[in-house]
């Protein structure tokens, strides 16, 4: 520690602290117009001047030294600071310091007694209001560079620059045109850091930043992707005025993305459901809650009477809170008497849960994401976090720019791939072969950890025998990745001191997705880079939805209870039965695809779908619709009347993540609080309240009257979560599981002592490469991959009902110029995409991001019919759909006119 004095007050600071840190520790605030704690200090504005042992220095760039005497209060140094602020303010128009202005500069001028200059010049440099979320008033720009550094150093987009000379210097998009046409990804970092109000968010949130957030705010956790950003929601008259990234957010650290920061317009959409709907004479009509709940209860009774408890099923949701998922599975198991409950992780990360459990013993990533900051090699596989998980993508990019080696394995040249030391571009569906090729080099060239493999792993002999058949040359023939690139990537990973593996849906959404997870997990096991050894980050799945981890943690799965106890395990069942005071069925229930098949066959008579638009997001959507139409009772909890709701018998209006209480679990296993910021529209209720209402109508008492009580009860069911509570999360902010005791921290790093497998060892996997479910042929010569784009989220039901639609207005198909020429397709023209299962209409985007023979589209615009293209092929272990490999062909769309 460093000890020095500030205005006579002794201050102790850690090594590396600045004098600005020291001044703040002494309880004094200085103006810092060029400084943001999230950025490297610049020292250019000179508004934070102090005297240090008689020298006048800028506090933000001056290191704290032992024994230093710092003076902030002397008249001369105060006048210097005042003069520096006054000089900056003198160049601005009067409205910069108006009473209504609440910028850092305006507040500094008020505190220093600097009045607005009534003789200041009129505005001359103009405004840029082309962007829906970011407006620029050039006359308020002081060229401090904070926005430029935020865009580069935190977001990693490099979309902004300073242009002009001298007093005419002003921020501008780097592309030179209007802001809306720039590379800006709308993270809001520039808005949040601007000290003068030159860059603002239009509307009621104008002028609000995370540094100056008002008191009328609600802290919650983002309800979009699985990163788990902490957000402060500013509320005005039951309306969201702004959503601000929390500076002390444990994962986002004052950063956000376009969805979490700005995409809340759906809350006030005229399309929001505000009252229940029930089907009568083939049409949906408004109904009261009593009528709707009675209809559901009667339908469930009839289904059980006609077909038994297993004729009822429910699909829970990663968009729902942990407490809601817990209540749903408890309702199915104790009130209905069936294990027919599943959640949407079935469609994305079920192979992660299965694969990580088989390799290590638990269904989550091995390490806290914060530890990636110490990684010297990043292996990012089957993921585009720059678009799908922007806050994580930005942190990974900054780590790479700081010197960590970056290996990206992905068919597309997007996001982090553009910055990679090695970009491996395997043919879709060949992951297992690629991972074996990397492992072959590690073993062949002696880049493994013999001690770790001897003491803490099993399966090495079997894997070594298998790897003999996966030389880089053979793997190159399977994957299309050059053998030299495989060797180079393996050596970067194998020679690093602290390697990290992160992966996404490009690994899981395959016919052999679980094999992909397990063979990828082989790499950190071979390196001894897992299990708290200090030699690596381990492996972590990047979860796509806000609570896809938590939905499974809570037991919303057909074969697993809360905390991943198996329904076939008498001990796990007995623990749950002791708390619930009801028997738990011992036979695993139906998975989502099996539910649809059972409905089409007449075996499923009631299906409750919570927060999932399965007709828009599930594969082979035509067959999904057939299943819903065949089921006698379909209940849908939704925000909007989506495609699935149009097939429902009862539609219930429910609250969004900004309108209810509970918790989420993010991608690195952290429980965080979700808090209600505004009331839901009309008579909409939370899913928690809805499940209780239906249980009450059936004469059942679920207990758990509040979300807090539900989480507490869950802790009694599973020791894995026994130390968690709303009270603790309110106090500590974020707690990872496992957390078995309330007075001990959760486990950030898993397996420090032993792995959670039956023998306490990590299990290497020696499964062979097998081809994907579909292959291109003469009739369908292209391979379609589906995924996400930066401005939208899943089916787009929320992001398409706001100004994000202005940023990305239509779905499109990315293809290589060679394929465009082969099929007679031009950039920007409508095309029809046909597979063996269906067809979709998109707009062509010709570019170099994909290799010839491959095409890509997102699934954010259900009307285009993308999921009618995808097949029913699914992971052989978990039934996760093979979204990443579909054989297709193209033709120009003929106008309907």
UniProtKB/TrEMBL annotation:
- PROSITE patterns xrefs: 2FE2S_FER_2 (PS51085), 4FE4S_FER_1 (PS00198), 4FE4S_FER_2 (PS51379), 4FE4S_MOW_BIS_MGD (PS51669), MOLYBDOPTERIN_PROK_1 (PS00551)
Ranges for the 4Fe-4S Mo/W bis-MGD-type domain?
215-271
Keyword Signal listed? no
Q: Where would I find the 4Fe-4S ferredoxin-type domain in this sequence?
A: 132-163, 176-204
The residue ranges of the 2Fe-2S ferredoxin-type domain are: 1-76
Q: What is its EC number?
A: 1.17.1.9
Molecular function GO terms recorded = formate dehydrogenase (NAD+) activity
Keywords attached to this Swiss-Prot or TrEMBL record, sorted alphabetically, are:
4Fe-4S, Iron, Iron-sulfur, Metal-binding, Oxidoreductase, Repeat
- On the tree of life, the source organism's domain of life is Bacteria
Q: Which SMART domains match?
A: Molybdop_Fe4S4
* Matches recorded under Pfam families: Fer2_4, Fer4_Nqo3, Molybdop_Fe4S4, Molybdopterin, Molydop_binding
Keyword Transmembrane helix attached: no
For this protein, the record's PANTHER family field holds: NADH-QUINONE OXIDOREDUCTASE SUBUNIT G, RESPIRATORY NITRATE REDUCTASE
* Family per record: In the C-terminal section; belongs to the prokaryotic molybdopterin-containing oxidoreductase family.
Q: What is this protein called?
A: Formate dehydrogenase subunit alpha
Q: Which organism is it from?
A: Streptomyces zaomyceticus
